[in-house]
Write a structure and sequence with these properties.
The protein is an alpha/beta fold. It has one domain: Ureohydrolase domain (Arginase, Chain A, 3-Layer(aba) Sandwich). Helix content is 33%, strand content 16%. The protein has 9 helices and 10 strands. The strands form 2 sheets. It has an 8-stranded parallel sheet with strand order 4-1-5-10-9-6-7-8, with helices on both faces. Strands 2-3 form a two-stranded antiparallel ribbon. It starts with 18 loop residues before the first strand and ends in a 10-residue tail after the last helix. Bound molecules: manganese (II) ion. Manganese (II) ion binds next to loops.
Length: 303
């Protein structure tokens, strides 16, 4: 089995590891490009080439959570079912890990997998914001007759946790725009961010987004939040996305000011011969673990 970072045995055991990586190669409804089911394996393989030391945090990040364990990949076939059955399986697996005190990082797979992971976290943390970084709102009631399509993820999450904050959106249907207005979804469109709508009094969109979140945050990161020039390996690419530096600066600020309780990364569609997309996403995950676990308890949240 491929593990995240390929750590020495003493740093990847399940018992002591505070963070666990759960491969969730679920793919059933992808509409344009296909291949997200290969993403967990590609990201895990790419992670073997990461430097373990991080110069920004001046630490070998895997030490911060006392190790990072990689779980056996979940498997999805005819017997495990799809749509709500697959969501229930993922929910159950993530819930078991949270109950064991683990910080869970779920690797998709198509975005539908986030419904299960977000639901497990919402049960565990009754006061929880769902932060979605994505090019798409995914708020359709159904898509091609399926309510569990990747295009409906946030509509399903809204049903059990309406505290949704969407960032980076630059593609949606009229039905979704209507939903956002009617339900007052907290929305930070890419165009508004890039036009500088939130840049005032020395603050940036980073703070505007973070101010809208509760203390506990579950993050669902769709790789198409990034610009396709950085991550071309996407099933539903959208121009006008975000770059590396602004994204990790945002995530660092987020981790400083709020408590990220878990996250998932989804919708990467590895394409041969590109190797950079899965490497960049592996690094994003590693950085984010670093930001989450280097947080100083009691730090001034308004700073
Ligand atoms: Mn998307």
């Amino acid at each position: 089995m491929t593990s995240f970072l390929h750590l020495d045995a003493e740093w990847c055991g399940f018992e002591q590891a505070g963070a666990v990586v759960l491969p969730v190669p679920y793919e059933y409804t992808t509409s344009y490009g296909k291949g997200t089911e290969g993403a967990p394996e590609a990201i895990l393989r790419a992670s073997h080439y990461l430097e373990l030391y991080d110069e920004e945090l001046d630490v070998e990040i895997y030490r911060l959570p006392k190790g990072i364990a990689t779980l056996p990949s979940m498997s999805f076939d005819e017997t495990s079912g799809h749509d709500q059955e697959a969501v229930a399986l993922i929910d159950g697996q993530v819930a078991r890990l949270i109950e064991q005190g683990k910080f869970v990082i779920s690797l998709g797979g198509e975005h539908t997998m986030s419904i299960g992971a977000a639901r497990a976290h919402t049960r565990h943390y009754p006061s929880l914001s769902i932060l979605q970084l994505d090019a798409h709102s995914d708020l359709r009631e159904e898509y091609y007759g399926n309510r569990y399509s990747h295009a409906c993820v946030m509509a399903r999450i809204y049903e059990f946790n309406p505290d949704i904050v969407q960032v980076g959106i630059r593609s949606q249907g009229a039905e979704e725009a209507e939903f956002i207005r009617k339900k007052s979804i907290k929305m930070f469109y890419a165009i508004a961010i890039k036009q500088g709508l939130y840049d005032r009094e020395g603050k940036s969109w980073h703070d505007a987004v973070i101010d809208s979140l509760k203390e506990n945050v579950y993050l669902t990161f769709d790789c198409d939040f990034f610009d396709p020039s950085l991550i071309p390996a996407l099933g539903t690419p959208e121009p006008g996305g975000f770059g590396w530096d602004e994204t990790i600066a945002f995530l660092r600020r987020l981790a400083e000011r709020r408590t990220i309780v878990g996250f998932d990364v989804n919708e990467l569609m590895p394409v041969s011969p590109f190797i950079s997309p899965q490497f960049i996403i592996a690094k994003l995950i590693y950085k984010l673990i670093g930001y989450v676990f280097s947080k100083t308890p009691g730090k001034d949240k308004s700073a």
